[in-house]
Amino acid sequence: MTVTTSTIDDLIRNQNPFGGHIVVRPQQIWGKSFPDVPSINAHASNAVFDAVDKVRKRKRETVGITITAEKGLGKSHIISRIRHQLQTGDGSLFIYMSKYDNLNQIKSLFLQSVASSLRAFGSQKVMQWQEIAAALINEAKQWEYTPQQYINMYPGWLSQHSSKAIVHLTESVLKVKPEITNPYIVKAILWTLSPVHINYASYWLSGLELAKSQAEEMGLPNPKSEDREAEALSTVRQILDITSNYRVPVICFDELDIADAADNGFLAAQVIANLVKDLYNSLKQGVLLLAMYPRTWEDQIKALPEAEAVIDRLASEQVERQPIALKYLNSDDIVALVSQWLQDFYEEHQQTPPHPLYPFDETKLRELGKSRPTVRSVLKWCAENFAPPTDGKLPPLPLPGKTPPPLPPHPVKPCFDNELANVEASLDSLMEDQITISTALWMAFNNLIGQTIEGVTIEAIEDIVAKTVDEGFIDFKIVGNKRKVRIGVSVVQQDRTIIGAVLKRLIDYKKFDITRGCLVRSKKISPNATLARQHLRILLKEKGGEWVSLQSQDIKPLLAIYFVCCNIESYELKGEQIVDFIEQTKLAINNPLIREILSAPSGQEPTNLTDDGLPISIPQPIANADNIDLNI
Q1: Which residues contact 90 (CB under 8 A, 6 or more apart)?
Q2: pTM of the complete model
């Protein structure tokens, strides 16, 4: 609909579509992404689409592609384009990895990334796991049901036959797939079609341990702790070989330009390059995609032992085995990019601007192209200059009694809002990420040094000094009140098998120099975990410790500001600005989770807990679903 310019100008003053949106986060790879102009660096994305087509048509088995670009040039934008384009068809699966928390256990981390990626929705609006499970059953039974139909039928099958239904389906698959050597992987994949078992199944497929009773019910043996890293790559290969019968796996490694190193001295990009070489050699089929800075390619990849063999696999299709370089933007690219962003913005708010680039001037935008800018620098310029045209005039002073125009937002605010939206979009997985949660808490408490909260004047946040056998069980220590208060904090979300070991440390006040142990956890502790519950009783009843319930609404803002800090260079912020924002908004000092950790312990278990180990949104079966007899 047509509206007046003044209405649009009011919108522009209150909404900035470019503010805080200069960094593509993993959540935007999977969910709603930034506006995209397919013609920009189309040569890179088309190379991936062509590779997928070649593999699908059996012209190639495996293809390796590496994309290089300087910071801000659009690597993650390209990856997001690839993911969303592939999602429109049913011929591929997308797997994405961008976190490398422990390079010494890269195979286990990769397995978890594979399992997590396959939980994302595919072209049929169900999880990619469920698409594969349906394909397995259809081939084994020569049926043609959709994943959603199976999801609807599973409750009836399980009610009638219990777990025998899954045993029967697993045996049917193995009859037509004798090359599959691990029947439990097939069984777990088939369990993903059960609405009440999907979270357990994907957790097990991640290489993690289920509660004993749940593992027995589903007929899935728990992995042995000492074998997990050794078995992880074998499990990945089998999962990908199974999936590649029905879809071309596109496996993407992003954010490789970090300085972290494994114990063998290899940096992240080198560790992943060696992993990709192994995958290239062993996978039945697939496309392997890496994104990195040109300097990372030159200094790290080319410096690897047997570098030539690695490069042959990382750039298997490129001329002279060189990576695909992204191009800087020209004037036409800039006009197209800004026009697309503004089109989405005005359509969302049902506005019709005077021209597609309003409030910008096309001549000024084209002038930016002369300096060959990056995508990020153009979006930053737009964020800083997004305002109604003033024709060189100063805005009028407010009349007496009129409300003055609002002050410009804090420079951190749009970045924080962007990260908060990303956190909300991936909250289920983040609530399982105890390392990230712990780090976000550590950062929040560090910003409160010198403050008095709940009777505790925070003086320092310290690491726990411990022998190797005790490392990693207590995350950090809050020191206050002239060291009379020393709270050891441990976040335990995912590793239910170590909850007893954590509690054992939290009650050993002398050994770890603490005066209070604090467990942060959102999930119940099983009554069957006898030793853990004994330690818990000592912590709460004898030691004056505390169990603080981790609530998503409390941790969300702390995670968001932590992610802003992680991307401080990309957002082009300063540390002082982030600190100032935390203080102005009272984001940390008024946070209920922060205050509960510092407050006097209640001596009671929290009441607002979820079931052990399982998040959880359970999809409900659709009523009146088609049903068929399994004939067991």
Answers
A1: 122, 123, 124, 131, 247
A2: 0.76
